[in-house]
């Protein structure tokens, strides 16, 4: 089985046929499946879609049960949590539906953790971190683009000299470099390469 376009979050099952891993969809399994929009709905009250998955949370006054249902709780109603609560050893604690969120100073609302600035995010050397509410993702560094090569997706250097995205002077040569490019004035001209006289 060969999939010329590759299967980003899935495996190749037949000629250009991908079988997506749970939580992903699309011809090349490159799109996140929004489980919150499925019928029947996966959560009893509220649903937060995440990359490749989802999280359930309850309305104020309800407690999230292990099976994803919401049970009425007088103690939860009194605490007034943004995303429902849980009872731990007789104590009521507010919940945050994602590991990328943390309880705010008031102990009731959830605030985003910026994984990119805290150093919690793990992105390979040619990718940069982009923070999202409750999570983050890794994007190709400037000067690189996402390509499917030898069975996997990778960030590959963009040859600005070939794609004509350089800003070299008409009388300069373009030299491609890893993640960037250089301009050198042609023989008989001098300058920065962006300006040649």
UniProtKB/TrEMBL annotation:
Keyword Repeat attached: yes
Sample GO molecular function, one term: calcium ion binding
InterPro entries: EGF, EGF-like_Ca-bd_dom, EGF-type_Asp/Asn_hydroxyl_site, EGF_Ca-bd_CS, Growth_fac_rcpt_cys_sf, Nephronectin_domain, NOTCH1_EGF-like
Domain of life: Eukaryota
All copies of domain EGF-like, residue ranges: 32-71, 112-150, 157-195
GO terms classed as biological process: cell adhesion; cell differentiation
Sequence intervals crossing the membrane: none
Keyword annotations: Calcium, Cell adhesion, Developmental protein, Differentiation, Disulfide bond, EGF-like domain, Extracellular matrix, Repeat, Secreted, Signal
Localization in the cell: Secreted, Extracellular space, Extracellular matrix
Protein family per UniProt: Belongs to the nephronectin family.
Alphabetical list of PANTHER family matching this protein: EPIDERMAL GROWTH FACTOR-LIKE PROTEIN 6, PA14 DOMAIN-CONTAINING PROTEIN
Protein name in the entry: EGFL6 protein
């Amino acid at each position: 089985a060969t999939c010329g376009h590759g299967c980003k979050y899935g495996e190749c099952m037949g000629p250009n046929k991908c079988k997506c891993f749970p939580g992903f969809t699309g011809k090349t399994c490159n799109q996140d499946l929004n489980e919150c929009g499925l019928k029947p709905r996966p959560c009893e009250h509220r649903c937060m879609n995440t990359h490749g998955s989802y999280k359930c949370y309850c309305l104020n006054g309800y407690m999230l049960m292990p099976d994803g249902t919401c049970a009425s709780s007088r103690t939860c109603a009194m605490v007034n949590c943004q995303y429902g609560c849980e009872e731990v050893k007789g104590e009521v604690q507010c919940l945050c539906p994602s590991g990328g969120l943390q309880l705010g100073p008031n102990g009731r609302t959830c605030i985003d953790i910026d994984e990119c600035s805290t150093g919690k995010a793990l992105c390979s050397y040619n990718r940069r971190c982009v923070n999202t509410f409750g999570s983050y993702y890794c994007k190709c560094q400037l000067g690189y683009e996402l390509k499917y090569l030898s069975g996997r997706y990778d960030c590959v250097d963009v040859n600005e000299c070939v794609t004509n995205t350089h800003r070299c002077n008409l009388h300069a040569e373009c030299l491609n470099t890893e993640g960037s490019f250089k301009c050198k004035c042609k023989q008989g001209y001098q300058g920065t390469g962006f300006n040649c006289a």
